[in-house]
Amino acid sequence: MKLLQFIGFIIKYLLIGLGIAALFIVFLPEKFSKDKSPAEHTAYQSQLTQKASSKVLNGLKTSYADMLAETAPAVVSIKVRSKVFSLESGACADLEARPPDTNACAVLSDGSGVIIDKQGHIVTNAHVLDKADTVIVELKSGAQLKANIVGGDIESDIALLKVDVETPHFLPLPENDQSRVGDLVFAIGTPNLGFHQTVTQGIISAKFFTRVAHYIQTDAALRPGNSGGALVNAYGELIGITSLSTLSNQGEKLYQSYAVSANNVRHIVEQINKHGQVHRGWLGLSGDMTINLNSISYELGLTAEQRQELQSRINQLPFGKGVVVTAVAAQGPAEQAGLKPLDIITEVNNKPIYNAVDLTSAIWNLEPGAEVTVNYMRDGTKHSQTVTLGKRGSVSP
Asked: Entry's PROSITE patterns (predicted)?
């Protein structure tokens, strides 16, 4: 009997010991696992390294440092100095820089630029080069180079520089614009705050055409000195040249920032390399939206009967479509092609026209001499006419 009790006692505590061991194995498996082989250990460490370098947390990338390290060297700082003016001249009104003990002054300005090819061509804003006599480009490495002005375009505020050095760091201008509203973007440049180069982050807020180029609006902050810098996407691809921003009445808080679309800049650069400036096509007419009947009637001095007739023509069109021709330049392309006031232009090269901006956008990248097909309504009848574009002037900085 005592033997059976002794055996039962041993079995009882043996089972308790096995249970405790099982708990340790379940909750602390690494304490009981076999040592990894050298190959397994290397693979394990590689997985940890890859996970750490990806900088991804909960599906979101948390760092773009590697991309910016490759991209930022293509963005440069630009220092501009004018020739020396006498103090009596209008150029000295602001007295931005006056050599001591002299009766002269020089205008200083600065900005940013983007190297676009390995030959040393640099894109910046035209206003950065205003009154420029000497232009110095500073690379991210700190090296300073004298730059020559190839040409520029005041209307789009784009200019082209050239330095006599080949560089492996450049951001090519794309042929097409694949960016979309909501895309993550980074603005790289040198603001006038004592920093050599800064990066701000935002998204694309809007895209639109105005004046002579397509623009990208972003909430990535820009400061004076960022002009001419790079706007890149999350892959480090150049999508725009930062151009301007709007301020509050106190000149402090930034509300909106803009960049010229990089594929538009490509076209401008091609024109500057070819002509030293941009040659733009010209239709030789002005017009107003079909929905602005009151302004059209006032501008053309229409009688009540003429206004009613124009209204009936507009009613034949889809709402808002079409631009009413309000003036035709004498001997201009439109007049030579037979267009007249009160014609309603509905399409140019098969692109629907809803306002004067659409009309400009349809020909913005076409040179003088190019032919466009203009579809329009006259007296309720559809017409189509080929117009050979004239030349619209553009001034170099």
From this structure: PDZ
From 153, 157, 288, 343, active-site residue: 157
Active site residue 130: no
d(CA 310, CA 301): 12
Task: Give residue 101's pLDDT.
Answer: 61
Long-range CB contacts for residues 89-95, cutoff 8 Å, separation at least 24: 91/131
User: Which among 181, 156, 208 has a CA at the least distance from the CA of 357?
Assistant: 208
How much is the pLDDT for 4? 54
Say if residue 215 is exposed, middle or buried (CB neighbours under 10 Å; 0-12, 13-18, 19+): buried
Residue 125: CB partners within 8 Å, gap ≥ 6?
A: 111, 157, 158, 159, 227, 228, 241, 243
Active site residue 121: no
H/E run at residue 199? strand 198-210
Which single residue is written with the structure tokens 């939206």? 289
Q: What is the pTM of this model?
A: 0.75
* Residues in contact with 255: Cβ distance below 8 Å, sequence separation at least 6, in sequence order: 245, 246, 247, 248
Could you tell me the pLDDT band of residue 18, with boundaries at 50, 70 and 90? Answer: low
**Would you state the structure tokens that stand for residue 1, as one six-digit string?**
């009997």
Predicted pLDDT at 394:
39
DSSP 13-63: HHHHHHHHHHHHHHH-GGGTSPPPPHHHHHHHHHHHHHHHHTTEETTEE--
Q: Is the pLDDT of residue 316 over 80?
A: yes
Which of these is catalytic: 82, 109, 227, 257?
227
**Does 179 qualify as catalytic in the annotation?**
no
**pLDDT at residue 210, as a whole number:** 83
How crowded is the C-beta side of 284, counted as CA atoms within 13 Å? 21
